[in-house]
Amino acid sequence: MYALVDAVSFYASAEKVFDPSIRNQPVVVLTNNDGCICAVCPIARKLGIPKFEPYFKVKWLLQKHGVVVRSSNYELYADLSERMMNVIARYCDDQYIYSIDESFLYFKNYDCLIKDWHAYGHEIRKAIWKETKLPVGVGFGTTSTLAKAANHAAKKLQGYNGVAVINSTNSAKVILQQMSVNDVWGVGRKISKRLNHQGINNAFQLSTLSPKAIRKEFSVVTERTVNELNGISCLSWDEVKEPKQQIFSMRSFGQRILDVYSLQAALSKHGCIVGKKVRQQSSLVKKLLIFASSSPHDTHYYKQSMIYQFPVATDNSCDIAQAISTVINEIFVPEVRFYRCGVGAIELESRQFQQSDLFMPDKSNPALMTCLDKINNRFGQGTLKVCAESHHEMWQMKRHFLSPQYTSNWKDIPKISCSDRS
Amino acid sequence: MKVIPIYIEAGISGFESPAAEYKELGLSLDQLLIKHPNATFIGQASGQSMEEIGIFDGDLLIVDRSLTLKDGDIIVANFNGCFVCKIIDKVQARLLSASKDHRPVKISAEDDFQVEGIVTRSIRLHHKSSELTACMR
């Protein structure tokens, strides 16, 4: 048996954990730079607040209903996610964390231990609510795709109350009939459109198709999905997470950038983020991609990228910043209103298997970088930085409606009143 | 919290300190004070109503959400949209203070009330802490 446990509109729910004054209010959370709505709590959803709309477009609607608006507070979400995942881990010995708020569980040989999966699901839900104050949905299925479908039913369909189980052809049919093909895990928008044209609208119809024919018309991936919907398990999670082959950091700016110094500062900041991630997985950068562009909606779209190859692979943020300063003049063009930029480590080496060069001594200074990371982990990111990152951070993320970092910053810990009525 | 180990050295180079292999040891306040790290959060008390039980303005409260509530526990609750620290009287559904100046508060059906967790420890900072100064008045 498989299970998928995920939080109900995680970001919005996370905002309510340490702010009891908004527990019963409609809440939405905005993406980076306060651009779009990325999470809508169930109360706000009932008011008809749409997801993924640009904030400026629906501002009037939010004001009309008195909706609480928050910027993404990643520090808070990361902490709450970890707590939630740890509680879930108590209920199964094989857990796969699929995303910040989704976790798969695989119950191998549990059938003699757990008689009632419904009750077990409610037990998981209750524990997570009690210990973290996050609402979750739990779906059980005989394959991961069916677990995902059950999870969808648990949260979206009436009468399930947060837990759904698919453990027979009958329970599968009931749920899959009420699920559009678009919502099936692994079926994209394009494929679902083509399926709709053929009169295949719900997941149950999809499950009745011949896997072989599907493979011919679509792909192996869709064939697997059809098999999975029929209870034949064929998707596997990576048992060991491989280190990433490429690491990127990029973002659009809060304000357009017009001068070379701000662009260099922004690129250096991304470079240092890449450097930190590279060190986290004990890799070294051999080739660095450095790019910047104006907005594709501008009349003259400009985009430039440079590849910098290090003579000796490095994980030192200073080397990365140095690389950026050597190519910055090739990227920057006056009068271009830069909209986004980024840095990517496109060729990585493992520190463990590094080839040393007789004539090029390794100058990466791991001790210095360890010290830098330790200080930033202890006192917060950005406490210590490479000078090229600069202090004038007008290109930084816009987060106008940010809630406090209740669990990761001493000055933000929740206030608890010991007086009468405050 | 990690206690910084101090090496005992003889001052003669070439001989490793006999304490070197013990340098990983240390006392962790987290281990002592927090039994259920996943379900625990730290808050700061504000106000005088719990002084007789030893919780003063500015004290840190360690709140465990995983424990089962017992009558007379010191709790943190969401009371009408505000976190409060009180003693729970389950029998009469009241929130009690630990101070003569504050009367019990009856929890009625109209009130928005949820128990957040049980206060298992409180910590008084006799010297000011620079990390916390921003929220001290």
Please explain how this structure is put together.
- The complex is a heterodimer of chains A (422) and B (137).
- Chain A is α+β, with helices and mostly antiparallel strands and 422 residues long.
- Chain A has helices at 10-17, 42-46, 55-64, 74-89, 117-132, 144-156, 169-177, 189-197, 203-207, 211-217, 220-229, 260-280, 317-331, 366-379, and strands spanning 2-7, 27-30, 37-40, 68-71, 95-99, 102-106, 136-141, 163-166, 247-257, 283-293, 303-314, 338-350, 415-417.
- Chain A has a five-stranded mixed sheet. In chain A, strands 9-12-10-11 form a four-stranded antiparallel sheet. A three-stranded mixed sheet of chain A has the order 3-2-4.
- Chain A is globular and about 70 Å long.
- Chain A starts with a strand and ends in a 5-residue tail after the last strand.
- The model of chain A has no long low-confidence stretch (mean pLDDT 88).
- Chain B has 137 residues and is mainly beta.
- Chain B contains one helix and seven strands, in the order αβββββββ.
- Chain B is globular.
- The two termini of chain B are 25 Å apart.
- Classes of the chains: A alpha+beta (422), B mainly beta (137).
Give a short summary of the structure.
The complex is a heterodimer of chains A (422) and B (137). Chain A is α+β, with helices and mostly antiparallel strands and 422 residues long. Chain A has helices at 10-17, 42-46, 55-64, 74-89, 117-132, 144-156, 169-177, 189-197, 203-207, 211-217, 220-229, 260-280, 317-331, 366-379, and strands at 2-7, 27-30, 37-40, 68-71, 95-99, 102-106, 136-141, 163-166, 247-257, 283-293, 303-314, 338-350, 415-417.
